[in-house]
Amino acid sequence: MEKVISLNHIAHSFGVETVIKGINIEIDKGVIFGLLGPSGSGKTTLVKIITGILYPTEGSSVVQETQMPSLKKMKNIGFMAQSDALYTELTAYENIDYFASIYGLSRSERKQRIKKVLEIVDLVKHMKKPVRTFSGGMKRRLSLAISIVHEPEILILDEPTVGIDPLLRQSIWQEFNKLKNEGTTIIVTTHVMDEAEKCDELALLHDGYVIAQGSPKDLKQSIHVDTMEQAFLHYGGGKS
Ligand SMILES: Nc1ncnc2c1ncn2[C@@H]1O[C@H](COP(=O)(O)OP(=O)(O)OP(=O)(O)O)[C@@H](O)[C@H]1O
């Protein structure tokens, strides 16, 4: 298996508070890797470190054999942050077009891919509306469209389906699986157990530590429980 991401002894502090504590994770190409943990456990901080947006206090994030941060590698990464970074006076189409042009897509590539991603997130009929008129869920869907428009090799999604209804959530997960089958490596943070079940591999985070790691099946089987929720509680997760 080709390693795409290696996190080596990562620790991170904000002032005197250490929020990431000695994390080692290796992620293979073409898997959906979930970071599961309660609010404040360090998921967002960790994905920011992986992408190179945040420089860790200790350790290193290596993406495709390159130490982050690396501008070159950032072009191979699609990142959907937890808060939507959108231009509210522009339309949905214009927002995607703007980010696609930053990624260097030609006019014809943009036209074709924007159409595709708008369909995936079910925003075709709203594409000409200014984003200021969008609901929270619509903004999330637009952010997702932007993160995949340049067909990145690595897709990092911080709670991508918050505020998205169950039906669309299901079709978005189908799309993640499709991207995975095409070789995209996907990292997704969540505190929703049924989403965790859909990941190939999981790291359970609690208070800045990885408390368990493995496939959902292995994590459940090794302690003889039926649900991820039970597994998470067993391993010491739950509320911080
Ligand atoms: N810029 C910052 N300055 C100070 N403390 C921060 C900062 N960002 C995060 N933290 C703290 O780091 C800890 C981990 O936060 P983080 O956002 O990584 O958690 P999370 O697991 O993503 O939570 P959530 O599920 O609520 O998004 C929290 O205690 C948070 O208060």
From TrEMBL:
<dbReference type="InterPro" id="IPR003439">
    <property type="entry name" value="ABC_transporter-like_ATP-bd"/>
</dbReference>
<dbReference type="Pfam" id="PF00005">
    <property type="entry name" value="ABC_tran"/>
</dbReference>
<dbReference type="GO" id="GO:0005524">
    <property type="term" value="F:ATP binding"/>
</dbReference>
<dbReference type="InterPro" id="IPR027417">
    <property type="entry name" value="P-loop_NTPase"/>
</dbReference>
<feature type="domain" description="ABC transporter">
    <location>
        <begin position="5"/>
        <end position="232"/>
    </location>
</feature>
<keyword id="KW-0547">Nucleotide-binding</keyword>
<dbReference type="InterPro" id="IPR003593">
    <property type="entry name" value="AAA+_ATPase"/>
</dbReference>
<protein>
    <submittedName>
        <fullName>ABC transporter ATP-binding protein</fullName>
    </submittedName>
</protein>
<keyword id="KW-0067">ATP-binding</keyword>
<dbReference type="InterPro" id="IPR017871">
    <property type="entry name" value="ABC_transporter-like_CS"/>
</dbReference>
